[in-house]
Amino acid sequence: MTSWDINLQKPEIYEDRLREIAVDDYALLVTVATKPDFYKQFPLVLECEKQGKPVGVVHTGQHFDEFLGHGLKEFHLDERLVANLNIRGDMSDKFVDLFSKTVKLGRYLKNNYPQTEFIPCVHGDTLTAGVVPLAWSYGLGRKCVQNEAGLRGMYPRSMFDFVKGAIDFEEFINGQWTLDWCIDRNEPFPEQIDTFICGSSSFCFIAPHEINYENLVREGYDPEIIPICGNSVVDAVEYTKNHKPENSIFEIYPQLEQDNWLRIDMHRRDNLTETRFKNIINAIKKLVLDYKMNVCLVELTAMNTGLTHYGLTDSIKKLSEDNKNFLFTPLWKSYGNVIEFFRSGHCWASLTDSGSQQEELNMIDECTSLTCRFNTDRPESVMSESNILTPPLENLPEFVNYIYKNDIPSIMKKAPKIYGTNVSEKIIDAVDKIYKKHKTFTWCHEKFLCKKENGIDYL
């Protein structure tokens, strides 16, 4: 007989806060799990409060340590929690744990606060975005709101020629800065799966850009429930202008205030595959040793896992010990520190596989976005010329050095700002409008006969 470990972490329910928001026909449950969730969802909470609309925060609890979970405190989300689900384990464990606890939470709210419909609002393409709406649909027969909907992997057609060595760096960049792109739904993995699952269980899709709207319409979703509102990261970046981190990044790492740095962070599973990961590590070494570039490598959890698995931790530590132009740091817990560094004029580029940084750096002229992937689910950032795909090939260090030496960032600073203004206000207004017209689930007979009736709650 085989036995499995079972997560016995109990959810935490905050009844006082639930009673405060169960006062209207519906209340938005802004659902968060990861660092990007914290800062991209927080502006929606502020906007609901500004408009006097009931809102609470549900935290899955998967990021609970001082570094990964710091955003809860940084954006005061911990003061607005109505539930902490305390999920744990690896990806599949979290899926099962989150599904089960979400169903139980939904039924608890329905039974104890029947006067109010609670509507989860999930973000983007995280595991939470995939699981919570699915659980809400199966458990309650209701759908959710997806903020930052319609993210689909795409690559420039010129990628094929670049990988084969048929075109040079200049031609590849020019090839990216066109509209000649193709859909590629395999990566990022599993984020593309998450966002597709989310779509099947959402009644309102907040599209950050026209491309996202087009993706969803092409897949058959009703254009009427896909408002193009912009990206809430705009409001998050704006928030940091007047809310400084507790300590400046230059107090934490004084050497970053000297000269100009390339910041590097990686966390995608795609880049943990052996060839890609080793190409990235070799690129770091070559940029530091051969090109004498100032490089700051931020060790995210995935980077730590990859270094350990491939036996490369000691070589990276030694590189840091022996070279003043290489700084190897743990995760920066404050989002404000990241934005501070990007704006400082001491970070000429961020080499990353992050999705959010592609958006943030469209708004920040002082720093350039270099996306270390073969495709991107933010192609609009590349088409607008504020981002460049720098795939993790053997020639990655040469490509990065080419961009730096040829002052390509000076061109990218002229890119238009594409993610909107007053985004959270538009999102909350759109959710309210769509909910009042469509509710969270519509049967076909209700759609065609224009008649609402009781559902099948008795089953």
| Major sheet details | 7 strands, mixed
SSE-based structural type = alpha/beta
Give the total of beta strands. 15
Mean pLDDT: 93
Rg, please?
Answer: 23 Å
Find the CATH topology of the largest domain: Rossmann fold
Total of domains: 2
Low-confidence segments, given as residue ranges, are none
Structure explained in plain terms:
There is one protein chain. With 459 residues, the protein is an alpha/beta fold. The chain folds into two domains: 12-153 and 188-231 and 420-449, Rossmann fold (3-Layer(aba) Sandwich); 241-412, Rossmann fold, CATH 3.40.50.2000. 45% of the residues lie in helices and 15% in strands. The protein has 21 helices and 15 strands. The chain has helices at residues 15-21, 35-51, 70-74, 91-112, 127-140, 158-164, 169-176, 191-200, 210-218, 233-242, 249-252, 274-289, 301-309, 313-322, 335-343, 356-363, 379-383, 396-405, 408-412, 423-438, 444-449, and strands at residues 12-13, 26-32, 55-59, 81-84, 117-123, 144-147, 154-156, 181-183, 202-206, 261-265, 295-299, 326-330, 347-352, 368-371, 387-389. The strands form three sheets. Strands 1-4-3-2-5-6-9 form a seven-stranded mixed beta sheet, with helices on both faces. The chain has a six-stranded parallel beta sheet with strand order 12-11-10-13-14-15, sandwiched between helices. Strands 7-8 form a two-stranded antiparallel ribbon. α6 runs antiparallel to α7 (169-176). The longest helix has 22 residues, at 91-112. The two termini are 36 Å apart.
